Amino acid sequence: HRVGLDDIDPDEFRRATDVTYHGTVWGTKAALSRMTERGGGTIVQVGSALAYRGIPLQTAYCGAKHAIQGFTEALRCELLHENSPIRVSMVVLPAMNTPQSDWARNKMPMAPQPAPPIFQPETAARAIIRAASTGAREICVGRSSLQLLLGSAVAQFFPVLGMPPSTFAIGAVLIVVLGVAAAALPCTQAAQLKIVDALRKV
After folding, report:
1. Where in 66-160 does DSSP place strands (E)?
2. Would you say 174 and 154 are in contact if contact means Cβ atoms under 8 Å apart?
3. What's the pLDDT tens digit per position in 64-78?
4. Contact 16, 61 (CB under 8 A)
């Protein structure tokens, strides 16, 4: 049985958005106020690879995470324009081993689980600590997140509709090559940051 957008009540969608997106917005405003008073600091947003590529059956979650990504980009621009000493960092997480699926509302006939590979919470904690201490623009956690970002960055240049078969084939090959290259890279945050920053400048 498919459980999609039609099966989500407006109140359920609103609740997911309030918790995930608006919770981030109000928490950021509170932190920004305190950091402005003391003259600096680093705000760390806990993002998701699904902010860059939505997946089926998670419209509310993917939408909220995408909103966080856009909100963070806009806030970073505002702070840069004001020459603010406050930095904003985004930690892009893959699937995590959390008890969320145990208590979150589920309308599917089976128990849900994140798409593997699934990482332990300690991995996310280390990335968040690193973001807070370095102020890095983005920290992409795990090869799976990096592969998703690379694939999304390349795919946007190859729209399927109206594309000649040869162009589509070239785009598909590029996506595969980049995915394999990402998998072969040492899974170091420094290497990942360089690739993500390079993609942002395209």
Report:
1. 86-93, 95-96, 118-119, 138-140
2. yes
3. 999 999 999 999 999
4. yes
